Amino acid sequence: MKSNFRFYMGLFLALVALGSLPYMLQGDYFFFAAFSVLQFVVMATAWNILGGNTGYVNFGAAGFFAIGAYSTVTLFKLFKAPIILCVFFGTANAALIGLAMGYLTLRLQGVFFSIATLALQVVLMTIVVNTDFLGGARGVYVIADRATIFGLPQYIHLLYWIMLLVAGFAIIVARTIQHSNIGRGLSAIRDDEGAAECLGVPTLKLKLVATAISGGLMGLAGTVFPFLITYIDPTSTFNLSVSVNSIAMPLIGGMSSWGGPVIGALLLGTIQQIATVTISSAGNLLIVGLLLVMFVILAPNGIIGWFDGLRKKRKR
C-alpha cells in the first residue's frame, strides 16, 4: 500500500509540475521536443508490455503507431471529430488489430513471430498507400480548430498536455500489469513457456491480453500525432525510427521493470532532440545504434539492471 501511495503521489506531482510548464516557458520548440519524448515514453512502455514481459519481440511497432494516426485521419475527415474521440477510436482500433494479430501469430515463437509482426506492418502500409481516402502515398492534411483552452498561449501546449496524460496513463497500465497476476504469468512465459503451460498458466490467453494492450497503447501514441504536424504520409507514420526506438529504449533502460522503458525513452529521446538541433536529424538512428551496442556490451540488462547489480554487490 505504501509503495502504491508513493508511486501515485510521485506521478501526480510530476504531471502537475510538467503540466505547469506552458504557463512558465516561452518558445514552441521545447514543447514540440517534449511531445516527441513523451510519445516515445508511451511507445517504449507499450512495446515492453509484450516484448519485455514475454520475450516476444515485436518489429511492427510503427504499424500500430500508424493505425492510431490513420484512425484519427478517418474519424476527422468523416465527422470533424474532436481530439478526445479520435484518441479513443484510434486506441480501440489498434487494440483490436493487436488482438487479431496475436491470435494469428502468437503460436509462432522467436524469430518467426518477429518476422510476422514485420510482415503485418508491410501489409498495413500497402493498404494505406493504395487507399485514396487516406491520402495514399501523397499523404493527407489534418487541420483542426486551434481555439485556446484554459488560457493556454499556443495550440502545441494543448497537445503537450494530452500527450503528458497519455504517458502517465501508459506508465500506470504498465506498472499495474507488472504487479498483477497477469504480469507474473507473462514473466513465467518469458522464463520458460513450456514449464508455465505445465503449471497451468493460460499462456495463449495472457499473450493475447498483452498483445492487445501493447498494440492499443502504441496506437494511442499515434492518435495525437496528426494534429501535431497537420500532415501525415506513409513515410512519416510507418517510419523505421519508430520501430527501432521502441525496441532500443526498453533495452537501454532495462526490460525487467516498468521503469526501464521510461528511463530509456527519456534518456534516448532527449539525446535525439538535442542532436537534431546541434548536429543533424539524420544522425538519430546512428546515435541509437551506437548507444544500443554500448549498452549490450557494458550493461546487457539495461540501466536498471546495472544499478540492481551494484546494489547487490554493496549488500555482499
> What percentage of residues falls in helices of 4 or more residues?
over 70%
Major pleated sheet: 2 strands, antiparallel
N- and C-termini, Cα separation: 29 Å
> What spatial order of strands do you see in the largest sheet?
1-2
What does this structure look like?
The protein is built from 15 helices and two strands. It has 316 residues and is mainly alpha-helical. It has a domain at 27-238. A two-stranded antiparallel sheet has the order 1-2. The mean pLDDT is 86.
Secondary structure elements and their pairing?
Blueprint: H1 2-19, H2 28-54, H3 61-79, H4 83-105, H5 111-129, E1 140-141, H6 155-178, H7 181-191, H8 193-198, H9 203-223, H10 225-229, E2 231-232, H11 234-237, H12 240-253, H13 259-278, H14 284-298, H15 302-315
Give a brief outline of the structure.
The protein is an all-alpha fold. Helix content is 76%, strand content 1%.
Keywords:
316 residues, mainly alpha, 1% strand
